[in-house]
């Protein structure tokens, strides 16, 4: 067993204990971050004169070589090592001898793993933001295409008032836009560098933590070494944001599942994103939407697990915190996979516009507008409400929509109705006269779409420096 801390011990660790303690099986996932952190640390040690110029060159070249070989697949990260840090350092010593033993000068595995995790999560925040951006582009393109596609809006899953598909999808644009804002917010708040915190109390070496932070693309070093090694707030925030994203995807999935049903027939899912039944040949199942809905609980579980792990940990680092990785890695992969698949499904979705409009008409979604018509003709609202209620009962009995009634039938219930009632309760009129910003009227929606188009032209990630290329020069 390759260990970096054996000097204090007089006998080998029990194999079961070693296996239980080891993290190489999952922390090898951030091998790149570990080696980039080592390169920055060595460069800082060289700048400060803690390492000689030759030692600095040899260490940087050797770490770069290990990184290139791992990424080329010619060097395997061996599970005989306890963690990724041990693997890198032992490989380095094997290649350049005693100089390799100086890699760890002024550094602890505590601040090293804190750095690796922060670098990894920072990268994943950017990746998730990119996926959200692609999702928003697809939603906006669909909104532009369906400004005049009428459908029922719902409350309590009951048909309520007519809206457009553009307006309905616009609600999801707002949700995923807020998710992107959360990514930006998390990135800015987590962008402090913990390297140099040591085990918990810093180090006596004359480190330049500001220089290390700059090399690694951070805004600043952390200002408390105990918090530096034991902070996982940024990860909790990220998992919380991923949980919110999954909640939004799950809500959207639920609607697609409902819309795909025989009873609604609002959408047709592309063959590439649905499956059939092994026994019922007529079935076309919304499996992707169902799996996204199901995997939401998996991401929630990672958040609750980490919150539970962290709730009783005293300062500073404790081994419990090793449990921050496996479930987090799984949650990140799950959320990213769901975003990518859902975006593909949405972009290929066929909307059945005639069915949507017919559903809005047959669901009496224009009943409120019929009541407004009466109010505008001098009928008190409470009386108008009762009159339209009787009209709905009449239509249910006759199995017709309000639009299908004759003027004579309407006048039999209230003499106030005139020929212009039919225009007043048409789907087009009901939607288009709602012109306040945020409403489904076409002119209001065009304003919103223009705002969204300008929003998508901006990308906060463009301001992030290419620190990796600079570091690896």
Please explain how this structure is put together.
The chain has helices at 15-21, 24-27, 31-47, 53-72, 84-96, 109-145, 165-190, 209-215, 225-230, 233-260, 287-310, 326-347, 353-362, 367-376, 381-398, 407-413, 421-424, 427-432, 442-457, 467-471; strands at residues 150-155, 158-164, 192-193, 220-221, 267-268, 350-351. With 473 residues, the chain is mostly helical. The chain has 3 domains: 6-105, Fumarase C, Chain B, domain 1 (Orthogonal Bundle); 110-203 and 228-353, Fumarase/aspartase (Central domain) (Fumarase C, Chain A, domain 2, Up-down Bundle), CATH 1.20.200.10; 358-452, Ribonucleotide Reductase Protein R1, domain 1. The strands form 3 sheets. A two-stranded antiparallel sheet has the order 1-2. The chain has a two-stranded parallel sheet with strand order 3-4. The protein has a two-stranded antiparallel ribbon with strand order 5-6. The longest helix is centred in the first third of the chain and has 37 residues, at 109-145. The protein is elongated.
């Amino acid at each position: 067993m390759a260990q970096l801390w054996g000097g204090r011990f007089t006998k080998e660790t029990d194999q079961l204990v070693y296996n239980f303690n080891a993290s190489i099986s999952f922390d090898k996932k951030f091998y790149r971050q570990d080696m980039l952190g080592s390169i920055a640390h060595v460069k800082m040690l060289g700048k400060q004169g803690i390492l000689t110029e030759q030692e600095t060159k040899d260490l940087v070249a050797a770490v770069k070589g290990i990184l290139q070989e791992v990424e080329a697949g010619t060097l395997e990260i061996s599970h005989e090592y306890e963690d990724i840090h041990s693997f890198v350092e032992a490989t380095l010593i094997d290649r350049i001898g005693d100089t390799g033993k100086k890699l760890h000068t002024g550094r602890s595995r505590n601040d090293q793993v804190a750095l690796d995790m922060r670098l990894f999560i920072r990268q994943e925040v950017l990746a998730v933001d990119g996926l959200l951006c692609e999702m928003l582009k697809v939603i906006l393109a669909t909104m532009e295409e369906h400004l005049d596609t009428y459908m029922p809006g719902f409350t309590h899953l009951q048909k309520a008032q007519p809206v457009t598909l553009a307006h309905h999808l616009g609600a999801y644009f707002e949700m995923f836009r807020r998710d992107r804002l959360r990514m930006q917010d998390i990135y800015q708040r987590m962008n402090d560098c913990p390297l140099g915190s040591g085990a918990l109390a810093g180090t006596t070496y004359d480190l330049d933590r500001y220089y290390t932070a700059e090399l690694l693309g951070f805004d600043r070093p952390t200002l408390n070494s105990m918090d530096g090694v034991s902070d996982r707030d940024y990860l909790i925030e990220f998992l919380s944001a991923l949980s919110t994203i999954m909640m939004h995807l799950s809500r959207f999935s639920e609607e697609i599942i409902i819309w795909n049903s025989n009873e609604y027939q609002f959408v047709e899912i592309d063959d590439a994103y649905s499956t059939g039944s092994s026994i019922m040949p007529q079935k076309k199942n919304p499996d992707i939407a169902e799996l996204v809905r199901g995997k939401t609980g998996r991401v929630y579980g990672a958040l609750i697990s980490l919150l539970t792990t962290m709730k009783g940990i005293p300062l500073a680092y404790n081994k419990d915190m090793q449990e921050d990785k496996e479930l987090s890695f799984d949650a990140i992969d799950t959320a990213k996979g769901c975003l990518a698949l859902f975006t593909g499904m949405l972009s290929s979705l066929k909307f059945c516009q005639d069915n949507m409009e017919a559903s809005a008409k047959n669901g009496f979604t224009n009943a409120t507008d019929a009541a407004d018509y009466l109010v505008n003709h001098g009928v008190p609202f409470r009386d108008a409400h009762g009159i339209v209620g009787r009209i709905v009962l009449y239509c249910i009995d006759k199995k017709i929509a309000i639009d299908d009634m004759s003027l004579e039938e309407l006048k039999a219930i209230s003499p106030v109705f005139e020929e212009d009632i039919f225009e007043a309760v048409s789907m087009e009129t009901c939607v288009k006269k709602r012109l306040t910003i945020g409403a489904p009227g076409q002119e209001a929606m065009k304003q919103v779409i223009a705002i969204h188009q300008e929003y998508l032209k901006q990308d906060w990630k463009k301001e992030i420096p290419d620190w990796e290329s600079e570091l690896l020069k």
